[in-house]
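User: Can you predict the 3D structure for this chain?
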Amino acid sequence: MTPTDISVTADDISPPALSRPGERVAVPAAIARRRWRARLLTVGLGAALLVVIALSASSGTVDLSALDAARLVTGHLLPGMPWMSDGTYTLLQDQVVWQFRLPRALLAALAGAALSLAGVFIQAVVRNPLAEPAIIGVSSGAGVGAVTVVVLGAAAVGAWIGAAAFLGAAVATAAVFWVAYKNGSIAPQRLVLTGVALGTFFSAITSYLTLTTEAQNVFSVMFFLLGSVSAATMTDLIGPLMALMVAIGVSLTSGRAVNALQVGDETATALGVRVNRLRSVLLLAAALLTGTVVSVAGGIGFVGLVVPHIARVLVGSDHRRIVPVSVAGGALFLCGADLIARTVSAPAEVPLGIITALIGVPFFLWLMRGRAADEQGMSR
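Assistant: Here is the predicted structure, written as structure tokens:
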């Protein structure tokens, strides 16, 4: 590649440059293009997400336009709007948008962003673009906790199922750490094998509980395991939002270190990266994101695999570009999937996990056949 006349510090290069901090180096044209592509993609995906949220808030049995839904939301955010009190909209229309449609759209967006970012972290930890949050067994552990509550028939299941799912995710994370941590380090291969084994173990427990429970509980169990945001409330947004903010903070402070980690442990250590500490932080952040999402939205699969992978194909391997594109792309992907899930077979609702697989897999395979995938070494 022929360098352009664009010049930045060595701190801006990915993978991290071996030159001294502050040294001026030329940026290859391909890297400059990917940076601009990442910025444009992030902005474009964010704008598309706003459109999908407006469509989601206006779609349903109660007839409303996207503009009407936007006006109702604005009226709640900015008190004193005249259309909120002059009879333009009925109480039913207001409640449908503010209490039901908007929370589920926002929860779908937050869940998609969180699962996608968790996928970015897991793929960085194990240095494998085919890894996803489920590989560490967190989703399966959360499933055990939730299914246990349903099977036991606890009173007010809706109030307990989220707490049980998060507790199951925490237990699974602790178990993975305990088994995978040896001789003062967490080896990627040991982590993968431990996660797969424990995930299979937790899935077996879930299957046993499902088969032995009463018939009326089976539907609730299956619907939770496949994922849904149909019962979302504004309160449900707090956990995923806080987890996402913490994880984004982690990504902002460790971008160059994660890039160095992809080159190899020895190179990363030579560049001053605390490899074991970084892996532990990324793994904990991924577990926090996954466990929080599963506790409020169930086991939504495939997002953490396909969205980061597509982002990597489109903008390259620099995690400072991958993270914003993955977060925005994951939010848009799952919010759009939820809109399809509740409209394609209305009045029935399709679990989110089915929609994400049916939409994501063909697009994913199409991208894998493209030249961009070859350039990133993803289709070899």
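The CA atoms of residues 163 and 295 lie 7 Å apart. DSSP finds 15 helices and four strands in the chain.
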